[in-house]
Write a structure and sequence with these properties.
The structure is a single chain. The protein has a single domain, classed as Nucleoside phosphorylase domain (Rossmann fold, 3-Layer(aba) Sandwich). 31% of the residues lie in helices and 27% in strands. Strands 5-8-7-6-9 form a 5-stranded mixed barrel, surrounded by 4 helices. It is an enzyme of class 2 (transferase).
């Protein structure tokens, strides 16, 4: 077998110790071409593009993770367990569920509540709380403060459903102080915990479930800058 997994075509040593992981593989391509130098593509399997390059002398990889917990669950598991990756920083978009979290704000996901059954595989005698690496989260908060980036730290929701049949679900999560909703972080945090590795989810608010405000596709791309500055600065 020339590569360690059926989903990632990289050979040993081609992926850096820290991987930035947007959901969209085309966004991974954009990040590599925009922010990194001496870029080499290491994956194109299933068009889930992955690249390794340098940022201010630091070796960093960026790779798409797909949509939903089953997708990021596969890729993050393989990166942690077969490629020796130590840190994965998810960089994505989210919908605000808090009136104080505005469109274009950055959310540092300290915890990831979920309606997923992903943790059932561990057969735990209770409920597992998926949380970020404290070191990565605290470093992200410090960088945001230093750069005057409006960042909010707290609990998010990783949802298995984008279109939810339960019309009362949003209000219930809001009542528990959830800041924003996305679809991947909980699985990433659980995989990191089991592998004894580090993970963080940084999110740019692209729309608000409170006000109905939303960004266009072009505005989403441009609004990524603050989040990318944080992620690149804390990458080791």
């Amino acid at each position: 077998m020339s590569t360690p997994t059926p989903h990632i075509g990289a050979k040993a040593g081609e992926i850096a110790k820290t991987v930035l992981m947007p959901g969209d593989p085309l966004r991974a391509k954009f990040i590599a071409e925009t922010f990194l130098e001496d870029v080499v593509q290491f994956n194109s399997v299933r068009n889930m593009f992955g690249y390794t390059g340098t940022y201010r002398g630091k070796r960093i990889s960026v790779m798409g993770g797909g949509m939903g917990m089953p997708s990021i669950g596969i890729y993050s598991y393989e990166l942690f367990n077969f490629y020796g990756v130590d840190n994965i920083i998810r960089i994505g978009t989210a919908g605000s569920m808090n009136e104080n979290v505005k469109v274009r704000d950055v959310v540092i996901a300290l915890g990831a509540s979920t309606n997923s059954n992903y943790a059932a595989q561990y057969c735990l005698p209770g409920t597992f709380a998926p949380i970020a690496s404290f070191d990565l989260a605290s470093a992200a908060a410090a960088v945001a403060k230093e750069k005057n980036i409006n960042a909010v730290v707290g609990n998010i929701l990783s949802s298995d459903t984008f279109y939810c049949a339960d019309q009362t679900a949003t209000e219930k999560w809001i009542s528990m102080g959830i800041l924003a909703v996305e679809m991947e972080a909980a699985a990433l945090y659980m995989n990191a915990a089991q592998a004894k590795k580090s993970a963080l989810c940084l999110l740019t608010i692209s729309d608000s479930l409170i006000t109905g405000e939303s960004l266009s596709a072009e505005e989403r791309q441009l609004s990524f800058t603050d989040m990318m500055e944080i992620a690149l600065e804390i990458a080791e």
